[in-house]
Amino acid sequence: MLIGVVLAHAALIAEARGLAPLLLLDEPAVHLDEARRSALWAELAGLQAQVFLTGTDAEVFAPLRGMAEFVRTGGGGLA
To answer: What is the mean pLDDT of the segment spanning 31-47?
Structure first.
């Protein structure tokens, strides 16, 4: 439910200002099943916003390959 509230708020800001806000979603998919994750990815793509997603399981984000940039942390740097 919280993800829905955040996305609805971002959509309202985009409508009012003509520009969607930058979103930072920390582990947004951790409690979602595959169907709901797919719906989340589609919603984020349609929002036309810059979105930063964090997660510890890279496979959860596999459907975003080709439309997202992936950055991995470790060893004191980014890769």
So the answer is: 92
